[in-house]
Amino acid sequence: MSDLIELYRQTLRIRLVEEEIAKRYSEQKMRCPTHLSIGQEAVAVGVSSLLSNQDKAYSSHRAHAHYLAKGGCLNKLIAELYGKETGCTAGRGGSMHLSDLDVGFVASTAIVANSIPLAVGNALHQQVQKKAEISIAYFGDGATEEGAFYESTNFAAVKKLPILFVCENNQYSVYTPLKPRQPEGRSITRLAQEIGIKSIAVDGNDINQVINATQELLNHVRSGLGPALIECHTYRHREHCGPHFDDDLNYRPRVDIERWLANDPLFKMTQELAKQNNWSAIKADIEKELMLEIHSAFDFAENSPFPDPKQNNNYLYAN
Amino acid sequence: MSDLIELYRQTLRIRLVEEEIAKRYSEQKMRCPTHLSIGQEAVAVGVSSLLSNQDKAYSSHRAHAHYLAKGGCLNKLIAELYGKETGCTAGRGGSMHLSDLDVGFVASTAIVANSIPLAVGNALHQQVQKKAEISIAYFGDGATEEGAFYESTNFAAVKKLPILFVCENNQYSVYTPLKPRQPEGRSITRLAQEIGIKSIAVDGNDINQVINATQELLNHVRSGLGPALIECHTYRHREHCGPHFDDDLNYRPRVDIERWLANDPLFKMTQELAKQNNWSAIKADIEKELMLEIHSAFDFAENSPFPDPKQNNNYLYAN
Amino acid sequence: MPTNTNFAEQINLAQHQAMRDDPSMISMGLGIDDPKGIFNTTTGLAEAFGEERVFDTPTSENAMTGVGIGAAIAGSRVLMTHQRVDFFLLAMDQLVNNAAKWHYMFNGTMSVPLTIRLIIGRGWGQGPTHQQSLQSWFTHIPGLKVVVPSLTDNVGQLLYNAIMDNNPTIFLEHRWLHNQQANEDICKPLKQKPSSIRKHISGDDITIISNSYMLLESLKAAEILKFMGVSCEVLEISEPSNTQLTDVYDSVNKTGSVLVTDISHSHYSVASELITSITENCFSQLKVAPIRLGLPNYPEPTSFGLTKGFYNEADDIVIAVANVFNKNHVKSSPLTKHDVPGDWFKGPF
Amino acid sequence: MPTNTNFAEQINLAQHQAMRDDPSMISMGLGIDDPKGIFNTTTGLAEAFGEERVFDTPTSENAMTGVGIGAAIAGSRVLMTHQRVDFFLLAMDQLVNNAAKWHYMFNGTMSVPLTIRLIIGRGWGQGPTHQQSLQSWFTHIPGLKVVVPSLTDNVGQLLYNAIMDNNPTIFLEHRWLHNQQANEDICKPLKQKPSSIRKHISGDDITIISNSYMLLESLKAAEILKFMGVSCEVLEISEPSNTQLTDVYDSVNKTGSVLVTDISHSHYSVASELITSITENCFSQLKVAPIRLGLPNYPEPTSFGLTKGFYNEADDIVIAVANVFNKNHVKSSPLTKHDVPGDWFKGPF
Ligand SMILES: Cc1ncc(C[n+]2csc(CCOP(=O)(O)OP(=O)(O)O)c2C)c(N)n1
Ligand SMILES: Cc1ncc(C[n+]2csc(CCOP(=O)(O)OP(=O)(O)O)c2C)c(N)n1
Ligand SMILES: [Mg+2]
Ligand SMILES: [Mg+2]
After folding, report:
1. Residue A224 maps to which CATH number?
2. Beta bridge partners of B27
3. pLDDT at D333
4. Which of A116, A305, B311, C132 is the most exposed, having the fewest neighbouring CB atoms within 10 Å of its CB?
5. Does any domain span residue A33?
6. Are D5 and D182 in contact (CB under 8 A)?
7. Cβ atoms D76, D22 nearer than 8 A
8. What order of strands is seen across the sheet that includes strand A198-203?
9. B317 inside domain
10. Measuring CA to CA, how many Å separate A298 from each of A17, A25, A64, A287?
C-alpha cells in the first residue's frame, strides 16, 4: 500500500502541475505550444517506477508526464515554459524540448515520431558499449503511422537492442480519431509482434496493469533478448494543445468521454486507497505538500530572468 | 496445357531478352545501371496473366520482367537501354525508368520503395473516380524495410484501395542477405496481414502457385474488399546490377544457389511441358520466333538515332 | 459597401472554386476537415464536396506525398496541406525524386498537377522546428514551381492558379498573414493569371524586393523612408521559381541599388540568388553593393526573451537603407509584442 | 620512391585511423561490409574492427539517420555512408530537425559527432535520381558543417577531421574522383587541421573558385588560359559552411573579377551564395560582373546522347573567362567519352 501511495503521489503531482499550467496558461506568459498529459499520467508513472536514472528516455510533444515521472526537475520545466534562462534549455526549446540529463530524460522533440529513432540509437550505443542500462521511447498512436516508427522498431528487432517502446494510444491525433488513420481492427501490439518486438497491450489508466506488463517486458529487455513494446490504452482529458477542455467541438463521442473520465487513473487509485486508514488526512497532506512545491516552481519561473538574446550566437557548433 | 505453353513462351521471352542484354552489355553501348530479373520471371508472368491493359502497374529498379509481362513494347525497352530517341522515355530515364502507358505499365523508379506510394495514389484515383481497374505495385524484400512501404500499405488498408502489392522476396538487397536487415522469423506476409492487407506467400518460381494466389487475391481486390499482397519467394541468378554471375564473391551460400537454380521457373515449367507431344519441336519453334523478335529489337535500338541534347530543355514544365 | 475579407478566407475561397471547377480534384491533409479547418482555410470543403474528395490522412507525410503524386499522375488534380513546412521535411524524396522530375524524366508523357500548401510559423514559441521556411531548397530543384503569397488581394488568385497549373507547386503560406484584412473589391479575379512580379510602390533611389510577411514590413519601411527623403521602389516576387526577372532588372537599372529581404536564413537563400542574378545582369548600373536582410545563421529559439531582434522588421529595413544614403534612423519600440503579428494571435500555433 | 595512392584509398585510410583513434566510433551504411566495399572506400573496416562497430543496415535511410544521431548523442562517434546523395533525401527530417539543431536547441548540453558520407554520381547513365549534389541545401541549414573534397592530397585529412569534429557534418564525395592518383608523400597528415580555403594557382587577372570535380577542370582551364595570356588565381573551398571568406575576398579584391564553378544546378546554388558574399564584400574592387558556371535548370538525363554538354568542362571555363578578356576559345573534342572520368570507369555505378 505504501507503494501505491507513492504512485498516487507521483501521479497527482503531475496532474496538479499540469492543472496549474492550464490555469495560468491564458496569462500569455507561457508562450509556447503546450500539450498536457492530464488523464494519461499513469503510463509515465508506472513505467518510470521500474527505471533507474541510468536508463535513458526520449519522448514526443506531449512529454511533461514522462519528464516528471522520470525525475526531471520541476523548476526547470516550469521555467522552460516561461522561456526563462533557468529552464531545461534556457528557453531555446520550450515545452516540446524538455531535457534533464541528470535523471536520464534525454530529450523530447516536436516532430511526430522523430525521437523514436534517436532512442533506438541510444540503445545501439548501450549495446555496443555493453552498458547495463536501457532506453525508453515514448510516443502516441499517431506516431505509429510514421515510417520512422516502423523502420526504428525493425532495426531494434534486427539488432535485439535494449529498448522499451511505450505507446500511449489515446485514440486521437489532434482532432482525428483512429478511423481515417488506421484500418479497422488494427492492433499496434500485434503489428509490433510481427515486426519482431515482444509486445503487450494494457489499460494505461490502470497503473497496476502498466507496472505488471512493464515488469515482464523489462525482464525481457534487460536480459538482452531484444526490444519490447507496451501499448497503453488511455485518453486525454483536455484539448490536444493548450489548456482548455474542447469537447464542445463534438469530435469525440460523449459515451467515450464519460467512460474514460470514469476510468481516470487517479480516480482508480483512490478507490483502492480509500480503504486505507486515515486516507483523507494522508491525501490532504500530499496535496498540500505538492501545491507548495508547485507554487514555488512557478515563483521560481516567474522570478527567473529571460535569457539575453546576445546568447543566441552560442552553441551553433560544439567544440 | 496451351495456357502453360503461352506462360512458358512469355517467361522464356523475358529470359532470352535479358540474356541478350547480358551478352551485349559489356560492349558499353547500354550505358545505364541495369538490373536483370533472370530467375524471377515467373512472378511477373503469373501476375500479369490475370491483368488487363486497364490495370496500372508500377515497379522498381528491377523492372524489365514486369514491363514485358505487362505487354510493354520490346523495341522501346531495348532502345531505352541504348539511350535512343525511340526508347520508352527517349533516353531520359534508362533501364530504371520504364513506361508504356498503352498497356498500363505506368512507370518504374530507381529509388527503393518510392514507387509504392505512387501505385497507391493510382489506386486512390481509381477508387475516387469509381473505375473498374486496379493498381499493382512491384517491389523487393529490401523495399519492405522502407517506411514508404509501411505508410503506403497502411493507407491502402485504411481506404480499402484496389491495389495488389507484389513482393519479390529474393532474400538479397545487393550483396546483403536478410539477416542484418530483417529480424529472424520475419514474415512479410504476416506483417502485411497485421497492417491490414490480405496476404499470401508462395514459391514465386512456381507459376501455378503464383497464378492461384494472385487469382484469389484479385477476387478480393476487384470486389472492393481492399488491398492484397502476394509475397513471392524467388532468387536472382546474376549479380545485383550488371550482366555477370557473381557467385565467385561468395556472398550467397552454395547450397542455396544450387537449390534455387534447380528450382528455376523455366526448368519447372519444362518438366510439365515435356509430357506434351512434340514438345521439342514446339520449343524450338518458340525459341526461334523469340530470337527473331529479340534480334530485331536490338537492330531497332542500334539503328535508332540518339536524341538531340537540344531537346533537353523540353518538358521541364507541363503546359 | 465593399465587404471585408482576409487572407485565410481568400485561401478558402480559392479552394472552393477549384473543387467546383474541376470535379477530378481531391484535397487531403492532416486535419483539413477538423473543427479548426487549418486556421479556417479549409472550413466547409469536406461538407461541400464530400469526404471522398476532401479527407484527413494518417500521419505519414512521406508516403502520402507519393500518394498525392500517384493520384495526380493518374489524372486527379491534387491539393495537399501541411500545418508546418517543418513536417514536410519527411517527404523530400517523393517531392524531389518523383514529383519534380516526373514530367521531364518520362519525356512529357505524364504530368503531376499537384499543389502542396506549407504553412510557415513564426514567434510565440514556435521555436526551432515549427518555423522554417525552405523556399531556397524548393526553388533549387528543377521542375518545381514555388509560390509565396504576401497580400490578401491576390493570395486567392495565386492559389487558384497554382492548383490549376499542371505542375508540382509548393505554396508557402505565412501564418502571420492569415488575418490580413482587405476589402473584397480589391481582390483579383481567381481565374486571371497572376503576375509573378508586382510593383507596389514606385521610386527612384533604391529597389526593395520582398515576399511573404516581409513585404508588409517593406511597405511600412518605404513609408518611413519617404519621410526621410529616400524614394523606394518596392517589388514583390511571388513566384521565386520564375526566372523571368526583367522587371526586377529594369527597376535596379533605374535605381542603381537594391535591398532584398528574405523570411529565411540569409545564407544560401532566395536573397543570395536574387542578388547574384541582379549582379550578373545589372552590374554596370549598380551604384552600391546590394544588401540582403534575412535571418541570422542559427535556428529560431523558442523563448519570448530570445526572439527579440531575431526577425527583421520595418525599422531594420529603414536602418539598412538609411545607411546607404548616409542618413540615421533609430529603432522604435514595437506597438504589439514582438512575437505576434497582432492582438488577434493568442497562440498556440 | 614514393608510393602511389588514390582518392578512394585515402578515404579508406582516414576511416581506419579514426576507428583506431576512437574506440567509441561506429560506422554503418548499406553495403559497407560487402565485397565491393563502397568503391573500395570501406574495404577491410569490418574485418579490422569487428561487426559490432562496422555494419550493414536495413534499407531505412530515415530512421537509420536518426539511429546514428541518437548513438552520437549518447556518446558514440558515428560515421554513415550512402552510395548516392539521392537516397539520403529520405532522411531530411532527421538531418535538419534533429542533427543540425540538437546542440543549439538543447543549449549546448549535448552534441552530435556524426559524419555522413554522400556520394555524388555523374554520367554513364546515372540519370535524374543518381547524380544530385545538394550542397546548397545542406549549407543553408544552420548547425550543419558541409565538406566537399576535391583532391587526393587532403581528402583523407578532410574526412578524418570531419569524423573527429563533434558536429554533424555532411561529406560530399564525387564518384569521379575515386580513382584520382597521387603520390603518398604529398598527402597531408590526417591529424592536422585542414585549411578550408586553398590557393592552388596564384594569378592576377581573375579568381576562379571551385570544389569537387570542378576543381580538376578549373586547374586544367587555368593552364590553358595561361597560354592565352590570362593569369588565373584558382581557389578551392572545401568547407562551404565556413563563413570566413577573407582569403576569397583578398583574392577578388586583387584580381577584380571572379568566376565560380559549381557541380550542381546554378539556380539557388553555392555559386549564388559565393557571388553574393563576394559582391557584398568586394563591390568597389569588382571590375566585371561575377560569373557562375553550374548545371542547367533541368535534371540530368540518362542517355549518352543527352548528357553531351550537360556538364561544364575545362573548355567551358576557358570560354567564359576568355570572353571577359575579349579573347576567343573554341571547344575541343574530349579525349575520352564525355560521360566517364577516364578509362578506369566501366559503369554501372
Ligand atoms: C511529422 C509531423 N506531422 C504532424 C505534426 C503535427 N502534430 C503535432 S502532435 C500531433 C498528433 C500526434 O498524435 P499522437 O502521436 O497520437 O500523439 P498525441 O498528441 O495523441 O499524444 C500532430 C499530428 C508534427 N508535429 N509532426
Ligand atoms: C532509397 C534507396 N536506397 C538505396 C538504394 C540502392 N539500391 C538499389 S537497388 C537496392 C536493393 C534493393 O533490394 P530489394 O528491394 O530486395 O530489390 P532487389 O534488388 O533484390 O530486386 C539498393 C539498396 C536505392 N536505389 N534507393
Ligand atoms: Mg494520440
Ligand atoms: Mg531483394
Report:
1. 3.40.50.970
2. none
3. 78
4. A305
5. yes
6. yes
7. no
8. A105-108, A56-59, A135-140, A163-169, A228-233, A198-203
9. no
10. 10, 12, 15, 16
Domain assignment of residue A102, given as a range: 2-293
Cis link prior to A183 (omega < 30° from 0)? no
Nearest CA-CA partner of D99 in D70, D136, D135, D77? D70
Task: Identify whether the C-beta of residue C295 lies closer than 8 Å to the C-beta of residue C316.
Answer: no
Beta bridge partners of A56: A135
Rounded Cα gap, residues B17 and A193, in angstroms:
43
3-state secondary structure of D263: strand
- A273 contacts chain B (CB < 8 A): no
Are residues C25 and C77 in contact, defined by beta-carbon separation less than 8 angstroms? yes
- When CB atoms are compared, the residue of D60, D66, D97 closest to A154 is D60
- Name the residue of C57, C59, C85 to mutate for ligand 1: max ligand atoms within 8 A of Cβ: C59
A1 exposure class (CB count in 10 Å sphere: 0-12, 13-18, 19+) = exposed
Of D157, D186, D215, the residue at which a domain comes to its end is D186
Domain CATH code at residue D122: 3.40.50.970
CB D292 within 8 A of CB D264: no
Task: Give me the domain span that covers residue C215.
Answer: 197-324
Residues C106 and C151 in one domain: yes
DSSP bridge pairs for D265: D295
Is C349 a member of any domain?
no
DSSP state of D195: P
Return the ∠ at Cα D141 (arms to D140 and D146), rounded to 5°.
Answer: 80
Which of the other chains make 3 or more beta carbon contacts under 8 angstroms with chain C? A, B, D
Residue B47 forms part of a structural domain: yes
In short, whether B66's Cβ falls inside 6 Å of ligand 2 is: no
DSSP labels, C160-202: HHHHHSSS-EEEEEEGGGTT-EEEGGGSPPTTSPPPSEEEEE-
Q: Smallest Cα–Cα separation from C149: which of C122, C128, C129, C169? A: C169
Task: Quote the number of domains for chain A.
Answer: 1
D256 touches D286 (CB < 8 A):
yes
Across the interface, of C58, C68, C70, the residue whose CB is closest to B158 is: C58
Strands (E), chain C: 4-6, 25-29, 54-55, 77-82, 114-120, 145-147, 169-174, 181-183, 197-201, 206-210, 232-237, 258-265, 291-295
pLDDT digits (tens, 9 = 90+) for A305-315: 999 999 999 99
**Domain assignment of residue B198, yes or no:** yes
Angle, helices B116-128/B147-159, rounded to nearest 10 degrees: 10
- Give the number of the atom of ligand 1 that is nearest the alpha carbon of residue C130: 25
pLDDT in tens, D31-62: 999 999 999 999 999 999 999 999 999 999 99
Q: How many Å apart are CA D270 and CA D253, to the nearest integer?
A: 20
- Domain total of chain D: 2
Query: Which ipTM was obtained for this model?
Result: 0.98
Q: Is residue C191 part of a domain?
A: no
- pLDDT, one tens digit per residue, over A67-85 is 999 999 999 999 999 999 9
Is residue C262 located within the same domain as residue C310? Answer: yes
> Residue B171 CA: which ligand is closest?
4
The model's pLDDT over D149-204, given as tens digits with 9 standing for 90+, comes to 999 999 999 999 999 999 999 999 999 999 999 999 999 999 999 999 999 999 99
The C-alpha angle B17, B19, B25, rounded to 5 degrees, equals 100
B16: left (phi over 0), alpha (psi -120 to 50) or beta: alpha
Chains that touch A (3 or more CB pairs under 8 A): B, C, D
Q: What is the CATH number of the domain that holds D295?
A: 3.40.50.920
Q: Cell 526563462: give the residue.
A: A84
**3-state DSSP assignment of residue A85:** coil
For residues C283 and C163, state if they share a domain: no
Residues 60-89 on B with a CB inside 8 Å of D are 83-85, 87, 89
